[in-house]
Amino acid sequence: MRHRGAPSVLGAARRGAALLWMLGAATACGAVPSGPGTGDAAAGPAATVFAPYFYTWGWGSPAYAFGSLMEMKSRGGPSAVTLAFVTSAGGCHATTDIEEHRADLQAYVVAGGHAIASFGGATGTYLENACASAGELAGEHRRFVDATGITELDFDLEQHGASSNPAVNLLRATALKQLQGARPVRVSFTLPVAPGGLLQESIDILQAAVTAGVTISVVNGMTMDYGDGTDLATTPIRSIEGLAIQLRSVMPGLGREESYRMAGATAMIGKNDDNETFSLDNARTLLAYARQHQLGLVSFWAIQRDQACPVSADLAVCSRVNATTFEFSNIFASVTDPAR
Known about the structure:
CATH architecture: Alpha-Beta Barrel
Order of helices and strands: EEHEHHEHHEHEEHEHHEEEHEH
Mean pLDDT: 86
Helix content: 25-40%
Strand content: 15-25%
């Protein structure tokens, strides 16, 4: 079973002029959906979105507490998810897990659900590394949008070298600009952060997108897997503070509140891929911070892990913290419902 573990990102992030935010044209990913995606990509600012990751390989699997989006929702699960991951199925062709389960996705949306599709991840071949040209990549993105109805695409870029180099950054950025010219699509990026904010390779990804004219909705920091000895109560907050400061430094005239609305925070619940554990109390601390600053997005890896450990203790199956299902989800949902 494929398991995502973000690379260690110890050390301070180097700052640089990298990000363009199209105020009034792009928002956090929380508009009321008119289809499996987000509906009108030009809608105005919305409340913080909570959209934990949902394994695309988890559909129908008996390893988890639920085997579909509708089963998850019927059991009290979240009303938004980030479906992960879309990669190359061979050449410039996207994996079809989401398309194959569109009936479940559509039922989830009709029931009030919201879906984001995440391209990339820690393993597999990225489409931008498999497509021969920006036009070919844009065409495959367009085909995916048409086949799934999802109009909110996130790019989880964490493979060193493969995810960020001048050629691939230019190809991806050019394709996304072409895609946004053809479809009402929101684009966000999920990127590694150090305690001080973004890493230079992430800045390079964003700078290429900015130069190409891509409208970016959210820059989501992967606040996880920092390395042994990290305080997971304080370091994630330091990372997002650093990210927000970076946004203000590269956006003349950008206000403090607006910089937080651009930022997202994604934790790895429970045991991380190092020797650290993101606890329920750590989650409460992060969510109090997210509510205070009205972050654009909060998420975690992954909703199928938000359960007590069954016989298997595989990190892909459970958090090693939960006593019951959806304990972390209920805390994260407080970002939109403080009573929870």
